[in-house]
Input
Amino acid sequence: MSAAKRVWSVALHGRRKFWVEGQTAHRIAAVLANRIRSQAGADSAAKCVASLCEDIGIALTPIVGPRGVAALYKRSLFLTSHEHPVLSGLHEGLHTTMDVSRLTTTLTALSEAEANTVGTALLQSFYELLSSLVGLSLTERLLSSLWDRPLSDPPALEPTA
Output
């Protein structure tokens, strides 16, 4: 489903969700662009997409476990591959851990702009999938620390009181 169709289908289900989805897509693209700008090198987009995927995995592992994260990542790759065939087949063989090495290799072969576009679509798909399973509010709480954090900072952990 194209991004326009996805946004249209969201619009049919409620104006607030439509606005939130649009804001999230914009935020993901902005975070990725900021991370890419902070890195040097021809493959910076590929590394930044992989890094953000890993950060999301680290944030979610305490809640859904490594297999749950791998399942979300695998499904996100599969769904995104419909719009971006370059990702076709990357979901195969992922069972117990989220391994972004094949994603990095695939994105490195693309231009910076293409890697950024494909990476943004993958991250948006991951976010939407998680939102559909646990709800938008919980997804925001789980991933909000990733959006404004610089690339070098470790993911924020919940306090253990």
